[in-house]
Amino acid sequence: MVRQKIQRILFSRTLRHIAVLAALAGVYAAVCVWLELLIAPRFSGRTPNFHTTLSLVLGLLLVFRTNAAYARWWEARILWGGLVNASRNLAVKIVTIPATAPREEIEAAGQLVLVFPYALRDRLRSVESDDVPDEFKDFAHKPSAIVKRLYERFTAWRREGHIDGMDLRVLDAEATKLLEICGACERILGTRMTRSYRRFARQCIVLFLLILPWEMAVTLEWWAAPMVVVIAYFMIGLEVVAEHVEEPFGHDEDDLDLDGLCATIHRTAGEVLSDKQ
Question: Where are the membrane-spanning stretches (predicted)?
Answer without folding.
Answer: 20-40, 52-70, 200-217
